[in-house]
């Protein structure tokens, strides 16, 4: 049984959740939800993304959100997602010193998501690391457990990808089940092998809940040695281009489970639940709780 001390929950709702909402959420509303997440005890959070506003208009207020929070809360670890050099520069210029850069393990998805080959994305990542040495760069490894375009992703592919990232200086890698197709045995195998092979790398896990496997797969990840779990308030998340694609592991459900097994993360379940309710009430298209999805179209492009 894995050691369950020092489990950290990383809240990603303000990015992965909000980006999936078509109607623009007023910046003040986003700020209010983020403030309430902090109030509930969240200590590490993905605030937004510096992407092309043409591709994801919801994230067009990235500068304003980041500026507000990094100045106000010095003890919270904030970061934002970037898909390219341009995004990294925007983040740096506004004063953010931690980002996550996204590259898929599979070619098909990387092309669809960021319009680049995997090699081109790695080249750009190298440039970011070289040009912004003060920036802490996490890497989001998308499609670790399967790709909507290329299908199966093997453990060997994942290991080679991780090796490439480590060779250019990456120390934190987020293993993403981008479309929610992971199964517990696969999670166990991938996590256990990577932890043995790369003992100095901080691995995170990011599971989509398409078939209600988010809780199980994230729990198995912990049992296999993962210490950092990404989760989204209200289970928000998914893909703006795939109606029916389901959300993320919901933070409140996961905290509830951790409370029951006496794992203290410093996050207050009751407060979190009230934030989830607020999201459900005020953000169009948000569901909370279980995400069993009966729509046929479950393919999420990221
Ligand atoms: N921030 C703001 N604008 C950006 C940008 C960024 N990081 N990157 C590109 N742009 C702008 C360009 O200036 C250009 O604008 P223009 O048409 O007015 O000249 C436009 O976006 C297209 O730029 P281009 O370099 O041709 O990009 P692209 O069309 O090949 O798209 C990405 C590449 C990465 C910008 C785009 O695919 C993207 O933003 N993807 C988001 C992926 C994402 O967030 N996925 C979810 C998380 S995994
Ligand atoms: Zn996601």
How many structural domains does the protein architecture include? 1
CATH class: Alpha Beta
Q: Work out the strand percent.
A: 15-25%
State the CATH topology. TIM Barrel
Range of helix content: 40-55%
N- to C-terminal distance: 32 Å
Work out the number of β strands: 8
Number of helices: 11
Characterize the biggest β-sheet: 8 strands, parallel
CATH homologous superfamily caption = Aldolase class I
Overview of this protein structure:
The longest helix is centred in the middle third of the chain and has 14 residues, at 118-131. The relative contact order is 0.16. The protein is globular. The chain has helices at 13-17, 27-39, 62-72, 85-94, 107-114, 118-131, 155-167, 184-197, 214-223, 251-260, 269-282, and strands spanning 8-11, 44-49, 77-82, 98-104, 136-142, 172-177, 202-207, 228-231. Helix 8 runs parallel beside helix 9 and helix 10 runs antiparallel to helix 11 (269-282). Helices cover 40% and strands 15% of the residues. An 8-stranded parallel beta sheet has the order 1-8-7-6-5-4-3-2. The chain is α/β, with parallel strands linked by helices and 302 residues long. It binds coenzyme A (COA) and zinc ion. Coenzyme A (COA) is lined by residues 49-56, 81, 83-84, 86-87, 90, 102, 113-115, 142, 302.
